[in-house]
Request: fold
Amino acid sequence: MKKRQLIFLLKFLVLITLLLGGYSTHKFFLESQTIKIANWNLEIFGQAKVNNFGLMDFYVDKIKNYDIIFIQEIRDNSGTSFSKLCSMLQNYSCNISSRAGRTLNKEQYGIIYKDSVNLISLKDYNPDGKDRWERPPIEVMFNTKGYSLKIYNIHTKPEDVKKELEYLQSIISNKGNVIIFGDLNADCSYYSNEKENEFDSWNWIIKDNDDTTSAKTNCVYDRIILNSDADEEFKDYGIETKGITADVSDHYLVWVELKI
Reply:
């Protein structure tokens, strides 16, 4: 083979390699664009847990695995516990709902999200003039990299699960990407997803035979429910159990991953 032909062939092979490599990199970049969203009922998260430094470090290590995470059962009259948790997280922003509940044990929902995620709007249904929920839901709209997502977060009263889910269904607009997230107490003696019909046309990601409690009970109280639009982007879900004992919380952390 002549030297000129050999040089041309080598250049051609280099060009093909670069093109294929670039395509693979581009394809990988596109396929790797996902968002991970979680919910965690921290079981009476207040001053006692904040003052346990080892426990707080454990919470932070778990939270850092997610782009967005909702924290439930924040109970703190001083209103400082959640802000202390947020101060331990770098490159995250936080927001919190109003204190809600019909008894003295009022709770709040905390929202933690990476700085790369934009919180567009937050609607707090508390106070609810119609008294429909023990702890009224919040509605949060996010946008990240052009992907918009609306999340409803709620901690239902165990004895009123069906009624509270009916009320929740009545206020939700099933347009765009919508997720219902939270400790819905939607299992065991409180609710039967198989028999009831709330959000029947939606995808209940966490299965009825899963267990989201660290206690001796075997119940899937924590739920993730996607409407059809959000379900098109569904990639994976999980129940994080590692290291989560009864001292940490009586609930496991639940998460979903979406393609964006």
Remarks:
- Residues 25-30 have pLDDT under 50 and may be disordered.
